[in-house]
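WARN no homologs supplied; continuing
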Amino acid sequence: MVSEQNFEVEFAKIYPDFTKNLIQTCGDLTFTEVKICMYIRLNYSNKKILEFMDISHSTLSNLRSSIRKKLNLKRTQGLFTIIINL
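OK structure emitted
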């Protein structure tokens, strides 16, 4: 398994502008929320995200909800669609 630090470095090689664009879009995301967005950008399932981050399903739901609010998304707007276009 890739270490946390290596994950971020490898992600930045594949998507060099993603984190910068995400922060420009919404500067008040926490580090954990940014990380969730990175996993979503890689099209990881919720199950995979839960495994990699070692968090509960309710914690992930709360984080996704928080990301939606901070990005001013409606419930009907897909988080994946927004993130994939950053």
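The chain is about 65% helix and 0% strand.
OK
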